[in-house]
């Protein structure tokens, strides 16, 4: 009998796999040196993946590494969300309790979604940032935990992984950059059919250079012989090795089974059926042991001993005897913690499960569910709801399954496992009609429906409706990225609402559709919002009403900013306050502040945005925290306050990293690039833009990164690079987002690039196309940039187009100029148009220079100084030539510093043509002061203020201030009074000499 054979079924000798083990050890060495590593090991069932990982893990531990292992858990056809990460983090917490506590400090509420032992899960409205935030915090937790210790994180059986686990693993593989960390995942390659959900992840990993794939091949005939020798503890008969190798085809697990089965010369009697081979040892067990094995097979990949005892229904001594027999036959194994049992190999479990009769399977699931209901402590708390839902569902009992599935959906939502929540909600909808009416009537929205649309009903007393499940499923689909499924759900819901009208619910579903269709590239979402507005018009205030108004205002802010958008935002704020919808109120207020800034009510709008930023920070409303650190600096930049914008953006980078708001980070980097370009910090700007362009979370911030790299490349004369970046930026935004904030900047850059390449007709065509489509109100920031690019193109061409000049001038008249930066652009555009017509003047350009001297725009200042110098050189006055030379020296210094080659070359060409030397004149006095500094010091000595000095010398007050600071430094004095006293003492300025005599 097989049961009496004393042969080991597992070889104590590790056979083969030298190359694979070498790769793993090499990765371990790299990780120990501080370079995170990611590996994926694939192979067919039974080929030896687990044995390889065990061998590697043991060696890693001998080298001082901490090995944290978690396996994907299968319950019937279901997977537990994040189960392998929860298990691995528990192991890591046991091994490094202090380090893990320090790594999780301050984020325990969020990380408790994966590791409940850290505390209570954070509560609050779920948003698009939730999952990304959890993933980022998990990545940072692992990096910090692995800062001082080498950590090996093993995720086994990815073929069973839930969607959330796959997404988290992919996120880690893409983003881990620091720490002594090695992440290793295994999967069964023969299970990955064409439509298996793991296949897209494997394809993505193949594209990542940071991930290594290892595929385990079957054993050779020589390796099979060594494996059999280890199992039998003796050299096997060559003929038997040949037979086992032929029948197993080198599969390590089949070799084990055949080697044991063939002991005692019984090979010839074995069936050729794989399933029968796997069941041979099970059928050799005593009856009560076979019964326990069948019970275990239906309980999941691992079954806790107390739960198994409750379901098996055997006296404890009999149960232990049965388990001893199953473990002795190497069918079951005790779990590492010693609190449960699992099959030694999943193939055996699958064979035993397939051998169960349909009625037997549903009966076992019922007994599992009943045992778990009677004593919820039989399984870990974070698995209880999901396992109970699975047991009742597979017991085919809709009355019990429906509430259990809904409980599990609530728990998965709390863990940000929205893909699993969607699947459970779809299962609940499947069970809905089959469940008894009294069961459905007992369900309440307050328990199951977080997004329950208020409709005058009390969620604590009104029965849960099928539409409430659809609302939850629509949101879960959107948050999980399953937008097509979510869109289908909204369509079905709206069809039901046509039969049983409910305006508020219908409006709510139309708002969901308005968020889904743009993401799917179907439309811009306005028609859906218009329908929602029609449905709520005339109804009493409600949260749905506020949400409709807020969504409409947000759409208008992006597509048609203007008075209507401001009114919509104001009404959204008003309605949100009336119904106590705080999140909607903050969202609408932030939009309102931005709209007010665009409309010219700058200080009021900025104050509103700053207040929202502080309030959402205080309340930890994560979605709005991220938005406020993107939108506020964008508004500051739009009105020329680039330095303030940079300060808010730097604060934003710190906060998003601290709180895990990774999806906002690329936008912050993109906005930072824009403000740094404005401030003339181009090298820093290039780094920021490159960081945004490498975003993995979203394509639009990546497109913004390319856009600002294109701006820099154009300004530095790298036209080929500029064209490539511009094309990649456009592609990242796609053809469906025709928003002014994207369309106008890309059009401006396209015009400027075409002009630089001598394609004036293309530049004109681009401007005409944009203006023919119409400019929305309150788009001054981007419209001025477009008009300036077009006006400059006409000014630089040999023969300007009168029609184009007229079009630009007429459009400029419609733009407002309530802030200095917009007034400066207005003056600049007018001067460029006059230049295109051949009637610009030095006085006009002097006004433009003065306007820019008080702004944080050094490159723009250099460009208009170049224009002023060019205008001055047309004058016969010697002082004008001297002033032009001084301006060109300033332009050259700035262009050289920025690497703005076209401006540098233009400056050199202009100075050569005018026969000007740009070498600074030697000092004419012993103090080392330039001529202009002598003029300023003369006026300082006469007691003039900076403004008076500016008026006397026809320079700006800011330039006068710079000259005064330089003078104080050269004279080594600390005040204007000391400088005047020194000048008088040295007799630098004879009494009665007019200050600034002979200067313009």
Automatic annotation (TrEMBL):
Domain of life of the organism encoding this protein: Bacteria
Kindly give the InterPro entries that the UniProt entry links to this protein: AAA_16, P-loop_NTPase, Sig_transdc_resp-reg_C-effctor, TPR-like_helical_dom_sf, Tscrpt_reg_LuxR_C, WH-like_DNA-bd_sf
Coiled-coil segments, which residues?
746-773
Q: Give the matching Gene3D superfamilies.
A: P-loop containing nucleotide triphosphate hydrolases, Tetratricopeptide repeat domain, Winged helix-like DNA-binding domain superfamily/Winged helix DNA-binding domain
Q: Which residues form the HTH luxR-type domain?
A: 922-987
Q: Does this UniProt record's set of keywords contain Nucleotide-binding? A: yes
Q: Does the keyword Transport apply?
A: no
Question: What name has this protein been given in UniProt?
Answer: AAA family ATPase
> Which UniProt keyword terms apply here?
ATP-binding, Coiled coil, Nucleotide-binding
**SUPFAM superfamilies on file:** C-terminal effector domain of the bipartite response regulators (SSF46894), P-loop containing nucleoside triphosphate hydrolases (SSF52540), TPR-like (SSF48452)
Looking at the UniProt record for this protein, which Gene Ontology cellular component terms does it annotate, in alphabetical order? cytoplasm
Q: Which GO terms describe its molecular function?
A: adenylate cyclase activity; ATP binding; DNA binding
Q: Which GO terms describe its biological process?
A: regulation of DNA-templated transcription
């Amino acid at each position: 009998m097989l049961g009496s054979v004393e042969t080991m079924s597992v070889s104590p000798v590790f056979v083969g796999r030298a190359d694979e083990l070498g790769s793993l050890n090499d990765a371990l060495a790299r990780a120990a040196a501080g370079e995170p590593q990611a590996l994926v090991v694939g192979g067919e069932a039974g080929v030896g993946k687990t044995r390889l990982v065990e061998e590697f893990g043991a060696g890693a531990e001998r080298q001082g590494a901490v090995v944290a292992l978690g396996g994907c858990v299968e319950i019937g056809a279901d997977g537990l969300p994040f189960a392998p990460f929860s298990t691995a983090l528990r192991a890591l917490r046991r091994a490094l309790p202090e380090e893990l506590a320090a790594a999780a400090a301050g984020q325990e509420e969020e990380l408790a979604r994966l590791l409940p032992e850290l505390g209570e899960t954070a509560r609050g409205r779920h948003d698009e940032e939730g999952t990304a935030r959890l993933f980022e915090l998990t990545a940072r937790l692992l990096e910090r935990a692995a800062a001082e210790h080498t950590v090996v994180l093993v995720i086994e059986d990815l073929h069973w992984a839930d969607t959330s686990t796959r997404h988290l693993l992919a996120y880690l593989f893409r983003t881990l950059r620091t720490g002594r960390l090695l992440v290793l995942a295994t999967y069964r390659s023969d299970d990955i059919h064409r439509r298996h959900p793991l296949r897209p992840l494997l394809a993505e990993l193949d594209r990542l250079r940071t991930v290594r794939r290892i595929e385990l091949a079957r054993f050779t005939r020589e390796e099979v012989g060594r494996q059999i020798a280890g199992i039998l503890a003796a050299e096997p008969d060559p003929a038997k090795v040949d037979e086992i190798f032929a029948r197993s085809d080198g599969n390590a697990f089949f070799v084990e089974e055949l080697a044991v089965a063939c002991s005692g010369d019984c090979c010839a009697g074995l069936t050729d059926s794989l399933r029968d081979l796997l069941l041979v040892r099970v059928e050799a067990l005593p009856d009560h042991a076979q019964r326990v094995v069948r019970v275990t097979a239906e309980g999941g990949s691992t079954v806790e001993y107390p739960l198994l005892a409750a379901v098996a229904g055997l006296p404890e001594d009999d149960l232990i005897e049965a388990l001893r027999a199953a473990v002795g036959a190497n069918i079951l194994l005790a779990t590492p913690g010693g609190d449960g049992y699992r099959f030694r190999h999943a193939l055996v479990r699958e064979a035993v499960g397939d051998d169960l009769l349909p009625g037997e399977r549903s009966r076992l699931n019922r007994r599992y569910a009943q045992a778990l209901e009677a004593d919820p402590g039989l399984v870990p708390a974070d698995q209880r709801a999901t396992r109970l839902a699975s047991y009742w569902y597979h017991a085919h009992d809709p009355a019990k399954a429906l509430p259990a599935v809904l409980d599990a959906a609530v728990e998965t939502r709390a863990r940000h496992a929205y893909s699993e929540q969607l699947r459970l909600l779809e299962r609940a909808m499947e069970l809905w009609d089959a469940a008894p009416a009294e069961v459905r009537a007992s369900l309440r929205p307050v328990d199951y429906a977080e997004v329950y649309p208020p409709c005058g009903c009390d969620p604590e007393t009104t029965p849960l409706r099928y539409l409430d499940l659809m609302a939850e499923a629509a949101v879960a689909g959107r948050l999980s990225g399953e937008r097509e499924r979510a869109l289908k759900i909204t369509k079905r819901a709206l069809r039901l609402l046509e039969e049983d009208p409910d305006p508020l619910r219908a409006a709510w579903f139309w708002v969901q559709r308005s968020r889904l269709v743009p993401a799917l590239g179907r439309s811009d979402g306005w028609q859906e919002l218009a329908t929602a507005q029609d449905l709520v018009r005339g109804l009493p205030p409600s949260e749905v009403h506020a949400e409709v108004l807020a969504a409409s205002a947000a759409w208008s802010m992006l597509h048609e900013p203007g008075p209507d958008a401001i009114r919509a935002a104001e009404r959204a704020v008003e309605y949100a306050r009336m119904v106590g919808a705080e999140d909607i109120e903050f969202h609408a207020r932030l939009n309102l502040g931005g709209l007010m800034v665009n409309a010219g009510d700058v200080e009021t709008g900025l104050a509103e945005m700053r207040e929202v930023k502080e309030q959402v920070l205080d309340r930890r409303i994560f979605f709005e925290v991220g938005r406020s650190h993107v939108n506020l600096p964008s508004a500051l930049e739009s009105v020329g306050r680039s330095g303030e914008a940079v300060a808010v953006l730097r604060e934003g980078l710190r906060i998003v990293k601290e709180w895990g708001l990774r999806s906002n980070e690329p936008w912050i980097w993109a906005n930072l690039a824009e403000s740094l370009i404005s401030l003339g910090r181009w090298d820093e700007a290039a780094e920021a833009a490159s960081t945004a362009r490498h975003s993995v979370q979203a394509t639009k911030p990546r497109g913004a990164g390319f856009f600002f790299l294109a701006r820099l490349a154009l300004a530095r004369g790298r036209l080929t690079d500029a064209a490539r970046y511009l094309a990649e930026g456009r592609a990242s935004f796609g053809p469906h987002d025709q928003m002014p904030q994207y369309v106008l900047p890309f059009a401006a850059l396209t015009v400027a690039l075409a002009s630089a390449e001598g394609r004036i007709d293309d530049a004109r065509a681009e401007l005409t196309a944009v203006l023919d489509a119409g400019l929305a109100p309150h788009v001054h920031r981007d419209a001025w940039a477009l008009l300036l690019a077009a006006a400059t193109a006409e000014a630089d061409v040999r023969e300007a187009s009168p029609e184009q000049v007229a079009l630009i001038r007429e459009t400029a008249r419609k733009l407002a100029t309530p802030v200095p930066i917009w007034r400066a652009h207005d003056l600049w555009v007018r001067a460029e148009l006059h230049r295109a017509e051949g009637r610009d003047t030095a006085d006009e350009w002097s006004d433009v220079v003065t306007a820019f001297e008080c702004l944080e725009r050094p490159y723009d200042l250099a460009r208009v100084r170049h224009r002023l110098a060019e205008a001055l050189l047309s004058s016969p006055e010697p002082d004008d030539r001297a002033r032009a030379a001084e301006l060109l020296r300033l332009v050259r210094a700035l262009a050289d510093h920025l690497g703005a080659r076209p401006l540098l070359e233009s400056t050199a060409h202009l100075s050569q043509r005018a026969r000007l030397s740009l070498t600074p004149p030697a000092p004419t006095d012993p103090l080392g002061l330039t001529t202009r500094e002598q003029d300023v010091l003369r006026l300082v000595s006469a007691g003039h203020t900076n403004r008076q000095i500016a008026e006397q010398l026809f320079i700006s007050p800011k330039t006068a201030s710079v000259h005064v600071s330089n003078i104080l430094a050269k004279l080594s004095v600390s005040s204007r009074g000391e400088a005047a006293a020194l000048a008088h003492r040295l007799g630098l300025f004879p009494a009665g000499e007019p200050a600034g005599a002979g200067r313009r």
